[in-house]
Amino acid sequence: MTVHRVVVLALDGVYPFELGIPSRVFGALQDRYEVLTCSVDGGPVATNADFAVTVGHGPEVLATADTVLLPPFDLSRLSRALPPGVGEALARVRPGTRIVSICTGAFVLAAAGLLDGRPATTHWAVADVFRSWYPAVALDPDVLFVDDGTVLTSAGAASGVDVCLHLVRRDHGAAVANHVARVCVVPPWRDGGQAQYIEHPVPPAAGSGTSATRQWALENLHEPLTLTELAGHARMSLRTFARRFGEEVGMSPGRWLIQQRVTRAQHLLETTDLAVDDIAGQVGFATGTSLREHLHAAIGVSPMAYRRTFRGAAAPTG
Fold this sequence. Notes:
Layout: E1 4-9, H1 16-26, E2 33-38, E3 45-46, E4 52-53, E5 67-70, H2 86-90, E6 98-102, H3 105-111, E7 119-120, H4 127-133, E8 138-139, E9 145-148, E10 151-154, H5 159-172, H6 174-184, H7 211-219, H8 227-234, H9 238-249, H10 253-271, H11 276-283, H12 288-299, H13 303-310
Parallel strand pairs: 1-2, 1-5, 5-6, 6-10, 7-8
Antiparallel strand pairs: 3-4, 9-10
């Protein structure tokens, strides 16, 4: 198996937590990924904490990368223009290389023109600044990450874990990504988006939330599960339930249900020999055709194509 090289470009003011995410996630699969960290000049990098970090490489390793990752840096260093040396460093990246940003790293990609005309995200707290500086980018501050093929952007802090796990899932399937998540002791997939974390001027009304109902829904995905049934389980009116669900999860109940059904179907395609129609019934889609349509809309392939790609990607032992 060819080892995939991930090169992390650390900029001055980097957040230490996010800087370490790629090594922690991809490093759990050392037979599949190699992670190298570099700076624009090969020298030490100041962090936003009271210490600096010494990296192992200079910008020349960017030319060898299969994936380039930009971790975030301190808000005080945000600028509409590229930081010194970054343009020259990014010019070393080969065309077609996958490029990923975490949080404010998206500002670097936007300043370099790599996000023009593309959908992208960044931390919700700096979304207004981002929009004003880079109007050519289709910013969505409500999601945890955006996958636009060869360019991926993610929101703040822990969403760096989300996007890295997503890349493992995209490269090697859900079973391998789930193994990495267990090793890192994190959920393999987080529901919803950034909307659930945004500070609202008026706090949500007191009372029980929708968490118990979401868990109940996951245990009953094989059922149709109408909005009325969900609201009834939560003992809320339809209007209150839909509003509360959106506040807590960042998407509508219907969209969330489809996402959970597709995720469960992916798992069954990888780990069982069940027919597509049987899987559709187990995850709550009315027909195999419905499953095919939703899976294609979510990941762009048919159930059989997905199974052929990932059926052999069993989770490593250990």
